[in-house]
Amino acid sequence: MKKTLTLIALMFLTTLAFSQNFVKINVDNLKETQRLFDNPNLKIHYYNDDFVLATTSDGFDSAQNDVTVLDNEAFADNDAYHIVYCDKNNQNSYISNVNKNLQVLYRNENLLIVKSIEGTAMPFKNDGVVAVFDKEAKLPVVTRDYPVITEENPIIREMMNQVNMDSLEATVQFLQDYGERKFNGTHIAQARDWVEAKMLSYGLETEVQEFHVSSWMGSATCHNLIGIQRGTLYPDIYVVCGSHYDSFSYYGLCPGADDNATGTAAVLESARILTQYEFEYSIIYCVFSAEECGLYGSEAYADRCASEGMEILGYFNNDMNGYLNPGDEIHIDCIYPNSVQPIGTYYMNVGSVYFPEMQIQHVNLDYGDSDHTSFNNVGYMGIYPFEDVNHESPYIHTSEDLIGNSVNSFEMSQRYTQMNIGCLTELANPTGEVPAVACNAPQNFELNYPITVKEMSSIELSWQAPEEGSTGELVRYDIYRDMNVIASLEEETGYTDTITVGVTAMYHVVAVYSDDCEASTDTLVGEGIPDGIDENCENNFTIYPNPATEMLTIINNSSIETEVEIVNMIGQIVKKVEIIDRKELNVSDLESGVYFVKMNGVSMKLIIR
């Protein structure tokens, strides 16, 4: 009897677990994403800048969120869901070509979310697929501040100068010559053994990590290649770079020269050069399999790193860097979610110092993905420098992904590899070097508007002293308005400027130190505005509460339909509504800070907390 009751209880608990909904929740900003991660009734499995995928418990309030229920019994009969990046025009043909056990749960302009009973979902021809497992995601955190690079390190420049285009081409050619490197194909094991031999020849500690993939083409045991270069001072803290070495094509050969022999070449070339030096921190070189069927290889490794509590300062992805659109200059489109902004800023900082003439821009990729997402999803900072989101190689995932047409610029591959080396080494810190000069910026920089007299308004700048730890003594604060110094103060942490009503200006404060190190606050935009409104104004209005947190009430005293705008500190319109008499406006999605409510040429300051 006791055994019977136990079995019934287990069946009941299993039914409860399977009854959880698998949902998609749209988000507009990182603040909303953080709020969902903090919700105890949600288990988030995947996130990006636009939505999260999660399972819900009974206490979750769907009415308070933009929720789409995708599956009523989450992970009940499947190991994973899949995001298939496929544009709207090709979705019907894709669906008609896949096996009958594939269920389409959601679709929009760029992607499908699907459920496959038999394993993975097939990727669309020129895009990717991401597997979403029954594992809990984490938002990335910075474990140690990224260094601010102000000048070249000659040792690192020496390393960069050793990147050899012939060496890169030889690796791409060798991997291309296999003809195909499908994760369960006939040549993937040969490619794996060759990559491992290269790592061993550089003196790396190597590991072959096994993992399993259940595929629409059958099951396969796959392998990642991991090479470790131990740091001399902090051997258990890591900087990581990686690529995938598998290739894919629906029909015929898939030589994968640009996707992704170029990325693999960048990782191996970095290892060839950097193993000649010693660093304080350890460097890991990863080469993943089964990326093309859902990021399976990088997910297996990143998940293991997180479960073991490894401290990883940053992950730098290498995937497609050899196709330069004819007529374009060498440039880098840096792909990452807003949650990893610190490492994106660091990457651009390195580029601005070592290659100031090269354009690097942060972009979003809404039609594909790569291995950096696996690291981001388990709480690590990771980015994806990419050849061009608008002009990628048109030959990938075909038999024409070859040197010549698909990889047409080894000079660009060289630059991407140099950037990979620069970012790894500035973090890993070559030993034997004099520590770089470092200094901290003023803290908590704010603008306030205490007084308005006729056409002039005052702007009160305030800040707090920098944190300790700078290499020099603090000498003074320089106050900048529109990039010009308007005052210098030795100890004071406040300054009042006057500005004409209706005029805007950019302000920042720089801490200047005895060793010539300078550190700046963020730039804030100030605007000359009245601190209130004239009660006799023809179209006056009232707002409350102020400060506001959730709801803001706007009262139009003129009773004439009028447009109201809420504008942030850099002049961007964040909300716009029409109002006749009274309007209740939800402002909980706005970041905390100072805004301006504008109506009929009148501005009123609004604080969001």
Set out the fold topology:
Elements: H1 2-18, E1 22-26, H2 30-37, E2 42-47, E3 51-56, E4 67-71, E5 80-85, H3 88-97, E6 102-107, E7 111-116, E8 129-133, H4 154-161, H5 165-176, H6 188-201, E9 205-215, E10 218-229, E11 234-244, H7 257-274, E12 281-288, H8 296-307, E13 311-317, E14 331-335, H9 341-354, E15 359-363, H10 372-377, E16 382-386, H11 410-428, E17 443-448, E18 452-453, E19 456-464, E20 474-481, E21 484-489, E22 494-500, E23 504-513, E24 518-520, E25 524-527, E26 541-544, E27 551-556, E28 562-567, E29 573-579, E30 582-586, E31 593-599, E32 602-608
Parallel strand pairs: 11-12, 11-13, 13-16, 14-15
Antiparallel strand pairs: 1-3, 1-4, 2-3, 5-7, 5-8, 6-7, 9-10, 10-12, 14-16, 17-19, 18-19, 19-22, 20-21, 20-23, 23-24, 23-25, 26-27, 27-30, 28-29, 28-31, 31-32
Structure, explained:
The protein is an alpha+beta fold and 609 residues long. The longest helix has 19 residues, at 410-428. The protein is 23% helix and 34% strand. It starts with a helix and ends with a strand. The chain is built from eleven helices and 32 strands. The strands form seven sheets. Strands 9-10-12-11-13-16-14-15 form an eight-stranded mixed β-sheet, with helices on both faces.
Q: Would you summarize the structure shown here?
A:
With 609 residues, the protein is of the alpha+beta class.
Q: Could you report the average pLDDT, rounded to the nearest whole number?
A: 87
Largest sheet features: 8 strands, mixed
Trace the largest sheet across and list its strands.
9-10-12-11-13-16-14-15
End-to-end span in angstroms?
Answer: 58 Å
Low-confidence stretches: 1-18, 531-539
Rg from alpha-carbon coordinates:
27 Å
The total of beta strands comes to: 32
Helix proportion range: 10-25%
Q: Given the C-alpha coordinates, what overall shape results?
A: globular
Question: Helical segment tally?
Answer: 11
Structural class by helix and strand composition: alpha+beta
Strand content: 25-35%
